[in-house]
Design goal:
With 444 residues, this protein is α+β, with helices and mostly antiparallel strands. It has 2 domains: 2-53 and 293-442, no CATH class; 61-254, no CATH class. Helix content is 54%, strand content 17%. The protein has 15 helices and 15 strands. The chain has helices spanning 2-17, 19-55, 70-77, 92-101, 136-139, 152-157, 166-172, 204-210, 222-228, 261-275, 287-330, 332-340, 345-381, 407-433, 437-442, and strands at 61-66, 84-87, 107-114, 117-120, 123-126, 129-132, 144-147, 161-164, 182-185, 188-196, 218-221, 232-237, 240-245, 250-254, 282-285. Strands 1, 3, 4, 5, 6, 7, 8, 9, 10, 11, 14 and 15 form a 12-stranded mixed sheet that branches. A 3-stranded mixed sheet has the order 2-13-12, with no helix packed on it. Strand 12 (232-237) and strand 13 form a beta hairpin.
Length: 444
Amino acid sequence: MEFFLEIIRLGLSNLRLHKVRAFLTTLGIILGVAAVITMVSLGEGAKQDALMKIERLGAKNIIIRSQKPAEQQAQSSGQQRQSWISRFGITRDDFDVILANFPDAEHIVPLKEIGSQVLRDDKRKVSQAYGTTPDLLNVANLRIGRGRYLSQADIDESATVCVIGAEVAKDFFPLEDPIGNTLRVDSKPFTVVGVLAPIGLSGGAGAALVGRDMNLDVHVPISAARSVFSDLVRRFSSGSFQASEVHISEIYLTVPSRERVMIDAERLRRIMTVRHPGLTDIGMIVPYELLESARKTALTFNLVSGAIAGVALLVGGIGIMNIMLATVTERTREIGIRRAVGATRSHILLQFLVETGVLSSMGGAIGVALGIGASVFIGWVVPRLPSLPMVGRLFPSDVSLPTAVTMWSIILSFGVAVATGLIFGIYPARKAAAQDPIVALRHD
């Protein structure tokens, strides 16, 4: 044991004699480890951010959505000055067929789009009002910020009440409590009974997945939507109007388990294909499918970025080998003296391996600290870029670059760094151990 400690002491003493050279030797390892950790943390952060947004749609949900066929969009855009009525999307018969074919579904929740605009006094917005049922709160992972959500009593009585999104409350009631106040959808008044908590799907990838910013939603009882409004949804612009006749805008179908999602989604797709050939006027979103796709994409990104950053580790290992080869030549006389006083080849081999091991371990440790620091710094500084003077306007206000440091990337990068140093240090160590002691003593 004493012998091994002496070997380690000798190795460290030799490194201390050439501090700058030791640091430069390990620089490749330091940068390689830091690059691996930073690149993986960026990929992991992007993956977790995407997964969080997708999971908000519900991993057991299948979302069917009415959408205007491409040919109708082209026709309506070519007749901007004329009246245009298009009929498409999910019908009430479709909804009945879905109810009949999925009797064990946890929830089947319809949404019916209503009105052309939402108004209060002189403020107005393009309508994003929907008739729905109380189950939507749980199915769409919504939360109530104030007041309450729709109840079964509201459905039974066709009550003219509504629950509004966080942005609607902010725009229409900036200085007062919206609960108990009135909003109008077209000319129909609805009493606000609840406000949804802000939803993270606003903007970005989330809004693209769900098709709209749900913070701008207004939810009313579906029974009131059917009794007060017709199936015709009008949109006015530039002296003309376009109208769409849609029975049901969206359906959320919640299956009993995640294992059933893909099976039931395919069955639902076949049913709807029979009723709507080509599915030109219906779209389907399967969050679980998107979830798996996001995981695979993130894994691929991590592997590719890790491999690219690993090249720096390889370069660092080659740097260690080159420096140690030069050290062998420089210390030939020392090797001869040690052999002359009784050191064996294995002793010389071990001494040089200790030095390369210390170099690679120190480089790996510094690289880990640098990588973690860079990841934390990136996640902290990027959201603050828009507030910087001069350059802030170059960045969007919601810019972010989430990072997530993973333990496996730290362990893997450090382990590879040490292994790389040792592997590339074996050749110089063997060359040193193989020196003839008499020839080494004559070396000047």
